[in-house]
Amino acid sequence: MNHPSDLHYTKNHSWVRLEGDIIVTGITDYAQDQLGDLVYVEGPDVGKNMTAGDEAGFVESVKTASDIFAPIDGEVIAVNELLEEDPDLINTDPYGDGWIYKIKPVSVADLDELLDADDYEQVIG
């Protein structure tokens, strides 16, 4: 499994990348592998204020459906519209073109509460 060391992770299999003062997030390589081929992705509404742990949408695969959760507090500022037509981007490029949404965080310091790649590896065993 690929879990880049420059990202932050949650125990519920989201990844987080800081880009300037914006947080980009999606589901991990491990999560997409467990789900199988994705057929539908629904992210949160732009403008929605999220609290860490809030339901932020869901992904559906040929096997199952799974909720996705906000990794930190903040306002949703963008969703990846490419996923509407091509949800498989998460399977082929979970940390790049397969991002799900972007958040303007309340506090970038909240990233310190998330897992690093080594800690996430321990979570997934």
UniProtKB/TrEMBL annotation:
GO cellular component: cytosol; glycine cleavage complex
One GO term of the biological process aspect: protein lipoylation
Cofactor(s) this protein requires: (R)-lipoate
Positions of post-translational N6-lipoyllysine modification: 63
The keyword tRNA processing is assigned to this record: no
Domain of life (superkingdom): Bacteria
Cofactor note as given: Binds 1 lipoyl cofactor covalently.
Keyword set, alphabetical order: Lipoyl
Domain Lipoyl-binding, residue spans: 22-104
CDD domains: GCS_H
Assembly with partners or alone: The glycine cleavage system is composed of four proteins: P, T, L and H.
Function: The glycine cleavage system catalyzes the degradation of glycine. The H protein shuttles the methylamine group of glycine from the P protein to the T protein.
Protein family according to the UniProt entry: Belongs to the GcvH family.
Protein's UniProt name: Glycine cleavage system H protein
Organism of derivation: Aquirhabdus parva
Lineage: Bacteria, Pseudomonadati, Pseudomonadota, Gammaproteobacteria, Moraxellales
